[in-house]
Amino acid sequence: MCAPGNQDESDDVSERADNYLRRGVQTATETKALQEGCTPRELCDKYHAIHKGIYEWFGIDFTHFGRTTTGQQTEICQDMFLKLHENGFTSTQSVDQLFCNKCDKFLADRFVTGTCPMCAYDDARGDQCDGCGKLINAVELKDAKCDMCKGPPEVKQSTHIFLSLDKLQQKTTDHLDKELAKEDYRWSANAVGITRAWMKLGLDPRCITRDLKGGPGGPGGYNEGQGGAGGFPEGSGGFQGGAGGAGNGSATFRYQPFRYQPFRHQSFRHQKKR
Questions:
Q1: d(CA 40, CA 46)
Q2: pLDDT in tens, 231-257
Q3: Per-residue DSSP letter, 128
Q4: Is the same domain home to 258 and 179?
Q5: Which domain covers residue 242, as residue numbers?
Q6: How many domains does the chain have?
């Protein structure tokens, strides 16, 4: 379990997390940036402008059209990340990953191809085989190769931060039962079925960091080159959108009560009247 550090350590943690999260670098972004020969930030700037232009051409108007590569998003994501850490909802685990010595980096699933261990398809990706459709672990691939240099990677261990979802199993189950017992609950049958099945299997700790070359590590003095995994910065991006829409330019726009009363929060009153 990660114990909270002293003030000096916390300041260092915040600065390094800020350096990474401000970039908004994720695996898919890093992959696409390599393909286009630009930096991840340049890629984000390019496609944000393209998407915004398309919406404007169609006459689609937003009170606020945001993005996760902003300083404001950094503040919100960092705040959530550190609060989870300080309250004992993070842990560290060592996991086996493929490492390319020539490229000097751990390889994300998207950067690895090889032979599927189940159907022998020779162009399987590091996360799924298109030949048989099975989900796989990159370290299980036979004759694996790095997509960038085509060289063979080796298996190395890397320590990552995990969100301790297992500690919230009972509380989440109780909340779900309470919500679904209401006569006016608005969940679809499909959503209820999937959620119930997931809860029945049990909540396990979920990794929220990745080894990325693009930035320093996260809270607690973890490995250099680590940053938040896709689901964490992107999940907090919705709160950043609300903060941007509120127009106060601050991550402290009371996003915390917004989590509990999303349809009654004052930020929604800021929307333009048609």
A1: 10
A2: 454 444 455 555 554 454 444 444 454
A3: B
A4: no
A5: 1-95+159-164+210-274
A6: 3
Give the separation between CA 19 and CA 160, rounded to whole angstroms.
18
Nearest to 218 by CA among 59, 42, 44, 25: 25
DSSP E strands in 84-220: the ranges are 90-100, 105-106, 112-115, 124-125, 142-146, 154-163, 206-207, 209-211
Which residues does 143 contact at the CB level (< 8 Å), separation at least 6?
114, 115, 122, 152
Question: From the CA atom positions of the chain, what is the Rg in Å?
Answer: 21
**What pLDDT score does 46 carry?**
94
Whole-prediction pTM: 0.63
- Dihedral, CA of residue 20, residue 24, residue 25 and residue 29, to nearest 10: -170
Question: For residues 66 and 249, what is the distance between their CA atoms, to the nearest angstrom?
Answer: 12
Instruction: Clarify whether residues 127 and 193 are in a common domain.
Output: no
First CA to last CA across the chain, in angstroms? 51
State CA 240 to chain mean position distance: 14
Which pLDDT value is given to residue 117? 93
Compute CA 63 distance to the chain's CA centroid, rounded to the nearest angstrom: 25
Q: Is the pLDDT confidence value at 215 over 80?
A: no
3-state secondary structure of 167: helix
Structure-token match 């240099």, residue found: 149
